[in-house]
Design a protein that fits this description.
Blueprint: H1 5-37, E1 41-44, E2 48-51, H2 52-98, H3 101-106, H4 109-151, H5 153-161, H6 163-200, H7 202-207, H8 211-263, H9 269-311, E3 336-343, E4 354-361, E5 366-370, H10 377-384, E6 392-397, E7 400-401, H11 407-412, E8 414-417, E9 426-427, H12 428-433, H13 441-450, H14 454-458, E10 467-468, H15 477-491, E11 495-499, H16 507-521, E12 525-529, E13 541-546, E14 549-554, H17 556-561, H18 566-575
The protein binds adenosine-5'-triphosphate.
Length: 578
């Protein structure tokens, strides 16, 4: 909230003024009664001697000032609270985006989304409702007690006597409430994860007719949330009940003592009225504080988790300052060397995925990575994109350690055409421009033409402005791929990674896609993760990977000539024995 402190203090001042005039109310109300008893007049500090009507008018004025103060403070606090929240949302989202892939490998996406939304909603309640209320209660409590003290010290002592008990209770219950709140939010995140995952994969859910299964899974998670929430509610109820009993007990004692004083003639009727009103003010403030306190505990539970995200370390996007070669070339040539690279995923440190991988791609070469499923092909491309760094050995790009380039600069020199192309909701134009945000229409169209996408795009009535559905469901697989190729062409990378689609397209659309790919690969170092060996006959090198090792390298002809090589075995599985 620091950036908005000016507005915050303005709100605080308005609140202080409003609440102070609220405190004048019992004073004037008491005076009204004293005036009635004393023949229509009474004298007040600062205001002198006033009639009943004058007192009533003064009272009305103070109410007006109080209302104006409340209006201004409510507005200021909302402004501060909402602005701070908007910042917090952006900060959390920005932080999430900047986190390394390791983080995403260990968390579920739904859980993250839940953190951002529900925890921040909880914080919102605290900032906008609880905080101003707490400030107001402090004024009422402090001011009320001070004014009571000027009337009767013994009575004030009675009021204050109950405080230590209340504070001890607040601390004791607070701990439990905070823990339950955190647990409730965790459970809530679990059930939201289910919703998000199933909706994302709704086609699978329906095709397996698993609606009932998913509903049960959700209900289980939902009931777990309910159980924790009810347990928290029980503690809250005990706390509030305890608080109210203690509070009214205190008020009762004050009233009893006040009545005795009035009977003995030590207090006037007006004084007692004032006293009773102040006592209810103070009591009300205390009761509210109890409620606010449990609210604050809940919020602390929620902020803990948001802060966890904000504290995670993000990807380092700067090049090491002491690197002697740190001057950036305009563009990479595209030479890639895996130099005895070994790697295991941080999530599974005991399961090495790559062992001593040696692989060299000269600028402009096409390298195919083939091998059985789970061999480590995608992992190699993940290292190339620097989603992860090797545990041993080094990845060299243009002869320099990949880590010596600024991360975003390096990734901007590469493009990935994935197996399953995900289009963002928006127009086709926007989807192609994702390769280079801000690209002009001409550049976009040129890229689409090269990617063999222009014709089918123009066959839609709205052309490039055609909206693609939630995940691009209106386009066929081959069309989506051509959009992805256009995107990559627009980016104009030095290094290209193609994760070849496993499912084959019909031969016409396969020809269009292959043709577009050939154009895309021209003059760029390309790694093709190949599943169908037919498509890689004319690449420069084929690296056969098995169990995280490069077991064979060579051209298609060389590898096919090896009598008992893995490549030959794999191709005879696909094409039949040669
Ligand atoms: P496919 O041809 O089936 O796509 P692949 O050769 O691309 O397989 P990789 O995806 O690189 O294989 O996986 C290699 C190994 O690493 C597998 O055993 C896999 O279980 C493991 N693995 C992949 N991704 C992760 C991850 N994020 N965390 C932990 N282990 C992983």
């Amino acid at each position: 909230m620091r950036p908005y402190r000016g507005r915050f203090f303005a709100g605080l001042a308005a609140l202080f003024i409003g609440a102070s005039f609220g405190l004048v109310f019992p004073l004037l109300a008491g005076a009204l009664i004293d005036a009635a008893i004393n023949g229509g007049r009474t004298s007040l500090p600062l205001l002198g001697s006033l009639t009943i009507n004058q007192i009533a008018i003064t009272l009305a004025v103070t109410i007006g000032i109080q209302a104006a103060g409340s209006f201004n403070s409510a507005l200021s606090f909302s402004h501060v609270g909402q602005s701070a929240l908007a910042d917090l949302r952006s900060a959390t989202y920005g932080r999430l985006l900047a986190l390394p892939m390791t983080f995403f490998g260990q968390r579920r996406v739904g859980e993250l989304a839940s953190r951002v939304s529900t925890d921040i909603a909880q914080i919102e309640g605290a900032l906008i409702d609880s905080l101003p209320q707490a400030c107001r209660q402090v004024v009422f409590l402090g001011g009320g007690l001070a004014l009571i003290a000027t009337t009767s010290l013994p009575l004030t002592a009675v009021m204050l006597g109950t405080l230590p008990l209340l504070i001890a209770a607040a601390v004791f219950f607070g701990r439990r409430l905070r823990r339950f709140s955190r647990e409730t939010q965790d459970r809530l995140a679990d059930s939201q994860t289910i919703v998000e995952e199933t909706l994302q994969a709704i086609a699978s859910v329906k095709s397996f007719a698993n609606e009932r299964f998913e509903l049960e899974r959700y209900s289980t998670a939902n009931h777990a949330t309910l159980a924790v929430a009810l347990q928290a509610a029980r503690w809250r109820a005990v706390f509030v009940a305890f608080f109210i009993a203690a509070l009214f007990g205190g008020i009762l004692i004050v009233l009893w003592y006040g009545a005795l004083q009035l009977q003995a003639g030590a207090l006037t009727g007006g004084e007692l009225t004032r006293f009773v009103l102040y006592t209810t003010f103070v009591g009300g403030a205390m009761a509210q504080s109890a409620e606010l306190f449990s609210q604050v505990q809940k919020t602390v539970g929620a902020t803990q988790r948001v802060r966890e995200i904000l504290r995670e370390s993000v990807e380092d996007n700067s090049a090491p300052a002491n690197d002697p070669n740190a001057t950036q070339p305009e563009r990479l040539r595209g030479e890639v060397t895996f130099d005895r690279v070994s790697f295991c995923y941080p999530a599974r440190p005991d399961a090495p995925v790559l062992h001593d991988v040696e692989l060299v791609a000269r600028p402009g070469e096409r390298i195919a990575l083939v091998g059985p499923s789970g061999a480590g092909k995608s992992t190699l491309t993940a290292l190339l994109l620097r989603f992860y760094d090797p545990d041993a050995g080094a990845l060299l790009i243009d002869g320099r350690d990949a880590r010596s380039y600024p991360l975003h600069w390096l990734r901007n020199q590469m493009a990935l055409v994935p197996q399953d192309v995900l289009l963002f909701g928006g127009s086709i134009r926007e989807n192609i421009a994702y390769g280079r945000p801000g690209a002009g229409d001409q550049a976009i169209e040129a890229a689409a033409r090269q990617a063999n996408a222009h014709d089918f795009i123009m066959s839609f009535p709205e052309g490039y402005a055609t909206l693609v559905g939630d995940r691009g469901i209106k386009l066929s697989g081959g069309q989506r791929q051509r959009i992805a190729i256009a995107r990559a062409l627009l980016k104009n990378p030095a290094i290209l990674i193609l994760d070849e689609a496993t499912s084959s397209l019909d031969s016409e659309s396969e020809r269009l896609v292959q043709d577009a790919l050939d154009r895309l690969m021209e003059g760029r170092t390309t790694f093709v993760v190949a599943h169908r060996l037919a498509t890689i006959r004319d690449v420069d090198h084929i690296a056969v990977i098995d169990g995280g090792r490069v077991v064979e390298t060579g051209t298609h002809d060389e590898l096919s000539a090896r009598p008992d090589g893995l490549y030959r075995r794999l191709s005879s599985l696909q094409f039949g024995p040669s």
